[in-house]
Amino acid sequence: YSMPWRQRCLKNQKKIPVNPLNLPIFVQTLRTPSPMERMILTSAQKALKINLNENIYGTFAEIGAGQEVVRHFFRSGGASGTVAKTMSAYDKDFSDAIYGTEKDGRYVTEPRLRKMLHHEYKLIKERLQRDQHPDKCFFTYANTVATINFTRKFKGHGWMGLRFQLTPGREPNDVIFHVRMKEEEASLQQETIGVMGVNLVYGAFHIRNNPEELLKSLYDNIAKYKIEIDMIHFEGPDFAGVDNRLMSLKLLKHGMTEAVIFGPEGNNILPAALLYKKNVLAMRGSFRPVTKVNIDMLKKGIDYFINERKVDREKMVVLFEITLNNLKAEGSIDEQDFLDRAEILCSLGQTVLISNYQQYYKLVEYFTRYTAERLGLIMGVTNLRDLFDDRYYRDLKGGILEAFGILYSTDLKLYIYPYKPSDQEEILTSKKLKIHPRLKPLFDYLVFNRRIKDIETYDPDILHIFSREVLRKIRHGEGHWEADLPAYVDNIIREKKLFGYQPENQQISSQDEEEEHYAE
User: Cβ–Cβ contacts within 10 Å for residue 473, how many?
Assistant: First the structure.
């Protein structure tokens, strides 16, 4: 838009000589929207469209700072056909009288939101007789929000949810998610919450058959730097086929958050709830598939970590971490490959972190949002070598010193697992690692202060196992890969045909061979 308006118009037109004098006649060319594209309406248009639908009827309950959502529906007009009741239990005692007392005294929580949804939706069914409203689809919108405080140290966060029917009389669905606010003024945060709440109500009824598009629609008319969704959960009869682990991945894919966590049962976990004031031990890898080496790294790393003086075994969280970049193949995220890895890790009872932090210092910075306790990272010696490669820190003004300042601004320890590339080569540990002379003093300082420790209790009989070789055997139908994996993992791969599994001696297709070569 830097060029004058007339020039822009001419630039977007097509010159077509159509007369004997060869004088150009301008014909306006309009781009026809793709059938798959979605028209983004304003908040007022969305609220009005909901209000004008005589079959959508429900209640709004907002506590804390989230008092802006229902206002959009009142201001757009025709709200009497949509809003059965709206309320704000702003006072704690009133809120407790309606929804019950919270034992821990916290009100901006998922259990509080679920109590609100359950209570209000129950009232709709009790007070509105179905025979008098045979065509109504009932809903309850609720939120509980705390905005930024005066000291600016607490940025604000909240829970938002919708319980709704898509067919009259059918069991309802739930969409519940957690947000972290990033704006610096409470009034701005409230306005953003109001817009996102309208997007949720509208998306639930008008983008019903596409959960991913519904997820993207939550940011209609909202810039992503204003608010972050770091956990979302879909449930109900109309979302029976939705895998919430995959929806977590969509949050990352569309830039709505930088990291998501899900547990062994495949359920999404709020990072703050899991990591708050905890000792965190994380291990990064591709886990494609998880091998005996990965399990040995984890077990030995845990043994070292729990023996640290500042680590409380009862408050320890162990995470398998996979970076978003590791999930990409040919420039896009391979969702099936992600689910294959998740299936294996969940079957082993592990908690999984998917992040967009390629550099370790960003991962540590993420953990320090929630905890100031001792942290630990388990990594191979080759990863340690990359950690001391200053090429990876050129985007930082302070270079590698700034990155290590962030890494060790908290109580962090690195546990290094050895590497043996072949039978002819010796085992490589941190003591034998070649570090550039410029960075050797920094490396020696960290070793001297016990911030870097070699795992010396490793199993030497499994150092020959590499995930890429196991994956190649699985995909090419070769034998003798089962012994490289933890117990029962081979059975899961065969039964569910994970990672492109081929029965023994069955050859992989040439196309798959090319894709595998690219992935490696």
Answer: 17
Give SS3 for 455.
Answer: coil
Q: What token pair was written down for 26?
A: 């301008």
Give 92's contacts (C-beta < 8 A, 6+ positions apart).
107
Helix (H, G, I), strand (E, B) or coil at 186: helix
Do residues 212 and 181 touch, judged by C-beta distance below 8 A?
Answer: no
What sign results for the dihedral spanned by CA atoms 198, 201, 202, 207?
positive
Per the structure block, which two tokens stand in for 235?
């449930």
Q: Which two tokens stand for residue 131?
A: 């025979």
CA 179 to chain centre: 12
For residue 302 the two structure tokens come to: 């845990």
- Residue 417 has φ and ψ, to the nearest 5°, of -95, 140
**24-28 vs 13-17, strand pairing mode:** antiparallel
DSSP state of 328: E
For the chain of 520 residues, list the mean pLDDT of each consecutive stretch of 10: 46 43 37 61 95 95 85 93 90 88 85 94 92 91 90 85 94 96 91 96 92 95 95 94 92 93 89 94 92 95 93 94 79 82 89 92 93 94 91 89 90 94 88 91 93 94 92 88 91 89 65 46
Query: What span, in angstroms and rounded, lies between the C-alpha atoms of 359 and 230?
Result: 20
Give the rounded distance of the alpha carbon of 135 from its chain centre: 37
- What residues have CB less than 8 Å from 448, skipping those under 6 apart? none
Residue type for 518, please? Answer: Y
Sole residue written with tokens 């689910």 = 339
Q: Can you list the alpha helix ranges (DSSP code H) found in 207-334?
A: 211-217, 244-253, 271-275, 292-306
Q: What is the pLDDT, as a whole number, of residue 49?
A: 95
- What three-state secondary structure class fits 69? helix
Q: How far is CA 465 from CA 290, 303, 381, 460, in A?
A: 11, 22, 15, 11
Q: Are 268 and 244 in contact (CB under 8 A)?
A: yes
Closest CA to 204 of 299, 275, 137: 137
Q: Of all helices (H) and strands (E), which one includes residue 193?
A: helix 186-206
